[in-house]
């Protein structure tokens, strides 16, 4: 029967009966399960406002929600609450959200709190179920977008267009189908593996974007890791040690963030699909059918087809490139052993250049775009015209053509080794292979004759350079041995005019018992093309201290390198400076026996030369003795130091044999 108000257990009921006589029909919607017996002492203590039993233990009464709590002063029946309903909060509100909980884990909550105290909701989503649901769907949507972005992203910056992402990735359809049918534990493992793999592929795609921007090619997962050391050195030279460290930390943080976010995104979508299996199955079937239809009909929006398999194709391409790289290593090792002039005796090499002082000079990043691009052509062409006139006035003649470099945007040593060895050296593995062998180089041919002293001027080399022996150089002057006491100009350790002045002081200006063959690397036109040195009177160069004021007055690399207009302008100015330095040196210090071969090692990076630029670089031969140029008259080159657009274009690796043959070298008999 109903409990009468104001009657406690000690006053109205014997001690061997329950504290309250409860009508089961009235209480069935409030409690579940059997009620525990409350001792008479506990009931009396409750009436007096005490919270503990005489034994010190909490009363056997379940905590109630704030809505069901009764102030302590009011006398209430000592009714024990049953256990909380699974999927509900203490207030009785259902918070089981299909977007924010996993069906594989229990959604039930334990007791709401200590007796007689209001219990706060245990989770934010319990207090704000609508907002939690909206946030859940937003996170799910962003996760899905992130996955699709990773599956569809291109590997070069110009291809980032809206149409690229308005496609259906087949990898997403197949992945969804697999995750829907898997049991919980395998599903979680597969989702984590898939997310991590997609994160790795995203990082590799980002590397492709960077390599295409700077080097005009994708990232080689076998060979290109060594370039990160050079990249760090470049950052240190251009941004300072602190900036370089910060950049490295930022890159590592980005890699970690990509891996973590991609893994969490796949897990999120996987959980949502599992909680809504029927809807997810229907959606996957519809999208899969759409993909098959679009693929069969070849449907496309603007360019790429709607049915995409970008990631699958990219993985296949990477695997093929790895296999090709490994095969190329063995094939190139055999190729490097073959040399038409490898066995030619010294007295049969370069017989038509005996007695000449030969200079082979590389101008950093001097590419075809410097002469033909509208942003740089006017200034560079004017400089070439003026310097050609100066050469003519000094009694020199010149012929010029084009060579296709083995590299683009960087890795200058690949261009140098290709030109000098006569082998196509377009990656680091080939470079290591050839420099570890005994293939004859153009500089090595001069040394083999015994008729020349051979030296190298390498201001860009800042540590030991064992390759000097491979190139056949008697002595190498690196940045530490040229005596420079002035400031660095960004990456370049010293201005080109100083390097040439040091060459004159250390080698060319000295008396010798034999002519000189020199390989000179000019670095002032190296990116980021700021600050740029200025020409000064040769007698003021000294130890380079004079350049302190010039460097400080120059432009900041950050203000130039990231400005698409300024970077082209400054690149053109740097080429002008290098050409001025080289030709002025020849006019001032050259003689009737001087022969100059100068060329660019590669085109500048894509932000300057353009994403579809060729790999062509200018090459010129300058000589005071006209008979030297008569030897190459059948080459079809343009007169002067500016090659015409229609001048012949040869692969850079073909130059060595053409040059050796033109100047009296005899191929070895087989």
UniProtKB/TrEMBL annotation:
Q: Where is this region: Disordered?
A: 1-125
Compositionally biased intervals (Low complexity):
57-69
Which keywords appear in this protein's UniProt record, sorted alphabetically? Membrane, Transmembrane, Transmembrane helix
What protein does this entry describe?
Answer: Sulfatase
Q: Enumerate composition-biased segments (Basic and acidic residues).
A: 44-54
InterPro entries reported for this sequence? Alkaline_phosphatase_core_sf (IPR017850)
What residues form the membrane-spanning segments? 135-152, 164-182, 189-207, 244-267, 279-299
**What organism, scientifically named, is this protein from?**
Streptomyces phaeochromogenes
């Amino acid at each position: 029967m109903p409990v009468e108000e104001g009657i406690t257990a000690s006053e109205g009921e014997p001690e061997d009966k329950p504290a309250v006589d409860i009508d089961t029909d009235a209480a069935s919607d409030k409690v579940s399960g059997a009620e525990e017996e409350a001792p008479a002492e506990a009931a009396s203590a409750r009436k007096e406002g005490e919270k503990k039993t005489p034994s010190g233990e909490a009363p056997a009464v379940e905590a109630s929600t704030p809505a069901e709590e009764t102030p302590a002063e009011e006398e209430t029946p000592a009714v024990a609450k049953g256990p909380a309903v699974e999927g509900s909060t203490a207030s009785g509100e259902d918070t089981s959200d299909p977007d924010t909980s996993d069906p594989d884990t229990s959604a039930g909550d334990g007791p709401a709190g200590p007796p007689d105290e209001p219990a706060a909701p245990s989770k934010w989503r319990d207090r704000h179920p609508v907002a939690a649901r909206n946030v859940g769907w937003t996170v799910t949507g962003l996760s899905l977008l992130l996955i699709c972005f990773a599956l569809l992203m291109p590997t070069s910056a110009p291809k980032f267009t809206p149409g690229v992402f308005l496609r259906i990735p087949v990898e997403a359809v197949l992945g969804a189908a697999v995750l829907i049918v898997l049991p919980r534990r395998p599903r979680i493992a597969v989702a984590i593996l898939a997310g991590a793999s997609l994160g790795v592929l995203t990082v590799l795609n980002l590397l492709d974007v960077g390599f295409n921007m700077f080097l005009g090619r994708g990232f080689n997962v076998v060979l290109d890791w060594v370039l990160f050391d050079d990249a760090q050195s470049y950052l240190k030279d251009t941004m300072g040690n602190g900036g370089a460290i910060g950049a490295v930390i930022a890159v590592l943080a980005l890699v970690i963030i990509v891996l973590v976010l991609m893994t969490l995104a796949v897990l999120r979508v996987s959980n949502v699909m599992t909680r809504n299996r029927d809807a997810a199955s229907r959606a996957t079937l519809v999208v899969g059918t759409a993909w098959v239809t679009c693929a069969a009909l070849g449907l496309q929006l603007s360019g790429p087809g709607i049915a995409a398999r970008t990631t699958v194709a990219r993985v296949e391409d990477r695997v093929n490139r790895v296999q090709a790289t490994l095969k190329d290593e063995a094939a190139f090792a055999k190729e490097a052993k073959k040399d038409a002039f490898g066995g030619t005796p010294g007295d049969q090499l370069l017989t038509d250049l005996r007695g000449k002082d030969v200079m082979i000079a590389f101008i950093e990043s001097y590419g075809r775009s410097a002469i033909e691009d509208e942003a740089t052509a006017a200034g560079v062409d004017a400089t070439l015209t003026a310097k050609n006139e100066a050469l003519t006035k000094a009694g020199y003649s010149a012929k010029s053509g084009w060579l296709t470099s083995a590299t683009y945007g960087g890795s200058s040593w690949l261009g140098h080794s290709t030109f000098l060895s006569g082998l196509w050296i377009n990656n680091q593995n080939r470079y290591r292979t050839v420099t570890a062998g005994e293939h004859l180089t153009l500089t090595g041919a001069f040394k083999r004759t015994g008729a020349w002293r051979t030296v190298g001027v390498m201001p860009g080399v800042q540590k030991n350079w064992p390759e000097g022996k491979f190139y056949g150089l008697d002595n190498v002057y690196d940045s530490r041995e040229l005596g420079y006491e002035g400031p660095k100009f960004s990456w370049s350790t010293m201005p080109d005019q100083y390097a040439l002045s040091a060459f004159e002081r250390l080698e060319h200006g000295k008396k010798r018992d034999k002519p000189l063959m020199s390989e000179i690397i000019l670095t002032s036109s190296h990116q980021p093309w700021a600050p740029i040195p200025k020409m000064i009177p040769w007698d003021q160069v000294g130890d380079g201290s004079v350049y302190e004021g010039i460097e400080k007055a120059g432009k900041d690399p950050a203000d130039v390198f990231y400005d698409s207009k300024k970077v082209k302008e400054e690149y053109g100015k740097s080429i002008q400076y290098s050409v001025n330095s080289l030709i002025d040196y020849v006019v001032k210090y050259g003689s009737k026996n001087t022969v100059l071969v100068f060329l660019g090692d590669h085109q500048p990076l894509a932000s300057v030369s353009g994403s579809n630029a060729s790999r062509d670089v200018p090459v010129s031969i300058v000589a005071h003795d006209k008979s030297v140029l008569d030897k190459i008259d059948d080459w079809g080159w343009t007169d002067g130091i500016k090659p015409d657009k229609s001048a012949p274009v040869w692969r850079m690796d073909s130059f060595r044999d053409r040059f050796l043959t033109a100047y009296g070298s005899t191929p070895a008999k087989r």
